[in-house]
Specification:
Elements lengths: L6 E4 L6 E2 L1 H15 L6 H4 L7 H6 L6 H19 L1 E2 L3 H10 L3 E5 L4 H10 L8 E3 L12 H10 L6 E5 L2 H10 L2 E5 L6 H5 L5 E3 L5 H5 L2
Parallel strand pairs: 1-4, 1-6, 4-5, 6-7, 7-8
Antiparallel strand pairs: 2-3
Length: 214
């Protein structure tokens, strides 16, 4: 164990807020428009986590931008109806804030949509820093977003922990030199996140509290 943890960085989608159904529905809507009857629910699960450019680029590099526009329009229109909360998140984040921990969000989502989700779930006021897709030149698993968040928070990697539900969250934390915690509630399953060997696996966000000695 290194220095005492002072700083916790969280992924957004699938970690702090349950956007799984929103993301899946939006991908299926968009792909159905361009490729009728070709994609099923299980086909789009690998797209949860990577950026939209990476996901659509793997399907049709020539139409990435127009597919992203279609995706974003549908996503925003259906956002508040389809986003859900994860049990234990609000209470845990509130407790960490009250105990004086520095909290940040590091996401591959755009900043405006990140704020929309945090506000919907009553989480916005707890985070001092948000590093989103439009703030960086390289996204997770590159360590750039984590370094940027830590710099803004005045923290070092060895006093931070990165919490996420996807491989790029865990790898970004490892690449940046933070500790890592994987969310067992990942839509891809506990075994999926365990493969990337995070320092901790959380069954509920509240599991962070005993890890930190809170």
């Amino acid at each position: 164990m290194n220095k005492k943890i002072t700083t916790i960085l969280f992924d957004l989608d699938g970690t702090l807020i349950d956007t799984n159904e929103l993301i899946i529905t939006t991908y299926l809507h968009t792909l159905e428009k361009y490729y009728p009857s070709r994609f099923q629910r299980e086909d789009v699960l690998p797209f949860i986590g990577p950026t939209l450019h990476e996901a659509f680029g793997s399907i049709d590099p020539d139409r990435v931008e127009e597919m992203i526009l279609e995706y974003r329009a549908f996503n925003i229109a259906n956002h508040d109806e389809l986003v859900r909360e994860f049990e234990g998140v609000l209470e845990t984040v509130k407790t960490l804030k009250e105990k004086g921990y520095k909290l940040g969000v590091v996401t591959t989502k755009r900043h405006d949509v990140t704020l929309k989700g945090l506000r919907l779930m009553g989480l916005e006021s707890f985070f001092e820093v948000i590093v989103a897709y439009d703030h960086v030149s390289k996204t997770k698993p590159d360590p750039e977003p984590i370094f940027k968040a830590l710099e803004q928070l005045g923290s070092a990697p060895d006093e931070a922990i990165m919490v996420g539900d996807n491989y790029h969250d865990i790898l970004a934390g490892k690449n940046a030199g933070t500790q890592t915690a994987g969310c067992a509630w990942s839509i891809k399953g506990r075994e999926y996140i365990a493969k990337y060997e995070p320092d901790y696996i959380l069954e509920n966000m509240a599991d962070l509290l005993p890890i930190l000695g809170v």
